[in-house]
Design a protein that fits this description.
single chain, mainly beta, 13-stranded antiparallel sheet, 15 strands, 8% helix, 44% strand
Length: 257
């Protein structure tokens, strides 16, 4: 989950901001809900945290990764850095996302090759470090790039349909939003045939600021491959400034030092 985000926008999960012009095929109610989600998320400017990534294959075997994360968000500018600490074979690998409005650049530092690789548009659907998250999933997607519809509404959930206006590996997404805390609790991903191919579940939401909640765990299920990847956050620090060099090529190469 910008939040799943950030991370992991990961992680990031939140689609921020609004546009002045509304489209005829869009539901203003659905966009208003996303605006409220984003307004709360945008109150977090700096965040650092420890992350654990657990990758489960179809037979239940696991691979574990320890990650240090850094994120910054202010005035529609977002930056996030993930640095792998363990195991030894990925130590020092780092992933940087820089977003200015609709412009985004993703960079991956590979210490074994001592080079920085820029992720191309054709690689957006590739798995990130062998996980069930793709580079597109980790991007800081902007809501003006989507059309929103209200798919369903109950006392306990808003279900919003989001369809990207241009190229994407997904035909559409369903975002399940908690109407009390305005957090995304689940995302369902569909292909052009209408099949759900992935599902992201966010749990353990904690209040990090007044009226602002973040998930402490997320699981991305690859339904086609019968595998999943779990992310767990710990030792979160909110609001402490992060040096600007962290979000540069220097920060990518420096890693956890």
């Amino acid at each position: 989950m910008k939040n799943f985000l950030p991370v992991i926008g990961i992680l990031l999960l939140i689609l921020p901001v609004t546009t002045a012009a509304q489209n005829a095929d869009e539901d203003p109610r659905a966009r208003e809900i996303f605006e409220e989600v984003d307004q709360r998320r945008e109150r977090i400017d700096y965040e650092t945290a420890d992350m654990q990534m657990i990758i489960y294959d179809a037979r239940g075997r696991t691979r574990n990764r320890q990650i240090q994360s850094f994120s910054y968000n202010r005035n529609k500018t977002s930056r996030s850095l993930l640095v792998f600490e363990e195991p030894a074979n990925v130590r020092g690998t780092a992933f940087l996302t820089l977003s200015e409005g609709s412009d985004e650049v993703q960079k991956l530092y590979l210490p074994a090759l001592q080079r920085i690789k820029i992720i191309s548009a054709s690689e957006q659907g590739d798995r990130f470090m062998g996980s069930d998250f793709t580079y597109e999933d980790l991007g800081d997607r902007q809501p003006e790039d989507y059309r929103f519809q209200m798919h369903a509404e109950t006392d306990t959930s808003y279900v919003l349909r989001a369809e990207k206006r241009d190229q994407s590996q997904y035909a559409w997404l369903y975002f399940h939003v908690d109407p009390d805390r305005y957090v995304v609790e689940k995302i369902e991903y569909f292909n052009a045939q209408g099949d759900m191919i992935k599902r992201l579940e966010a749990t353990g939401h904690e209040q990090v600021l007044e009226g602002v909640w973040q998930a402490s765990a997320m699981v991305m299920h690859d339904l086609a491959e019968n595998r999943k990847t779990e992310l767990r956050w710990s030792d979160r620090t909110i609001g402490t400034p992060i040096p600007e060099w962290r979000f540069t090529d220097r920060g990518l190469r420096r890693g956890i030092n």
